[in-house]
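Fold this sequence, please.
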Amino acid sequence: MSWIALARERPAGSLWPGGRPLVLGFALPALLLVVWQVICLARWLPPYILPSPVAVVERFATELADGRFGQDVWASLSRVLKGFFFGSAAGLAFGLLLGLSRWADRLLGPLFMAYRQIALFAWVPLLSMWFGGGETGKVAFVTLSAFAPVVVNTWRAIRAIPDPLNELGAVLTFNRLDHVSLIALPGALPGIATGLRSAMIYAWLATVGAELFLDIAPGMGGRLNEGRDKFEVDLMLVALVVLTGLGLLFSQAAALIERRLVRWRTR
């Protein structure tokens, strides 16, 4: 359940689910920051190993003023959106095929299940040979990551449609297009929404992985590599903080899309 959903379910007058103050949600991060600052002030670790929180904030301000950091964020966002679109569109089509056709289920279903046993990053060498390590290869990897969650959830949701609905379509002599648009898609919409939510999260994770393991290019993964190569830990920490914030935004956006789709179905 997302933070937004939890917030909506909180009791009246409460700032946090269960009546706990909102400040409790930030207690551990604040404590970690204090411990981090104490370690730096006591010089238990040299600054080039663990820079202070103040140094990280200063580096973040420097990166923002330089303007390059915004370009890197946009490059990563562009890749994740392209990969999510292509992967989810292909996954929806293939999931519908497996769910609606018994022959496709029997012929292609086992092949797809075998494909799912291959670790995602195992495809990186092959994709880099087919598409190169540049932008096309990165988008292809993100597309592949978004594909499987949509297929699985669409396939299962189509198969879970109650038999009476399918029988109703047969009684009304629906053709294939009518069956898909009036029965299959509306009936499977909650499962499809779940698949899209998972696909968006996987696409974001794959975007960072592609930027780390394929050719160096603008993007947040590229800044992590730059910080590692130059041994600039403050830059690496800034990139990690930004990646965390963007990941949380993507997670909340995916949850919002899921709720909107399910709400539209119930109208």
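Residues 1-44 form one domain. The radius of gyration is 23 Å.
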